[in-house]
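Lab notebook, bench 4. The sequencing result for the construct came back, and we need a structural model before the next group meeting so we can plan mutations. Quick request posted to the team channel:

Model the 3D structure of this chain.
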Amino acid sequence: MRCIFVGIEYAGKSTLIKLLTDYYRHRKLAVHVDDHFTIPDSTLSADSRAVYVNFPNDVKERMQRMQIQYHVEVIKNYPNTLIAGWHIEEAVYTTVYGNDPDSPYYGNYQYRAQRGYETQVMEARLPDVVLIHVTASDDSIKERMETDPHEYQIIKSEDIPNLKQLFDEEIDKSLFTHKGRRIVLDTSDKTPTESLDELLLLTEPLITFGELAIRALPVPDSAYEVRYENGVRKTITTKSN
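Done. Here's the predicted structure in token form:
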């Protein structure tokens, strides 16, 4: 499944990506994860992130535009792609915080390219692209902001209702939504595992028969290896070190 996770900060996108990554890898499937669209890129070193937030706005715009376009090809070429934010996050955060001197975002985002990115993916006629709108109640987001604050937090608590509305509007405009390739997942009052279970259930109508078959295969909870005996595939539990 090629997943595009979108939604307000603290909704639970990164948590779900980690759980789904573990889910796929436990089933011996390759995964391509790109959870690094929010400025500053979370996969950079601490020193690089500290420098990146102070880059000039035109440099940030160009870097973000290039990686957004690059990930069109990532979605097209890698099965089990899990990306967070992509172009929709960029549209929302530059709209709200682009002219805020205290924000790392910039105000010159090229919005007219929004549907163009999606069109390039649609033209590939991929059978398993899913836009996953991850959301949560205002109170849940505020609680997560207080209990587990991000080092480079983007949103402000007073902006939560407006930000959620903007995400709703952008996602409603998406070609993936118009083609029936969207699910909405509210993580309020759910454990991460409960949210993953709901994600798997909601995406069932949108995945390939091959993935559905893989999901149905029984696998041990612990580490295991795959063997074939007389042509029969078996999963053999291995001892942990």
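The chain has one domain: 2-237.
Will bring this to the meeting.
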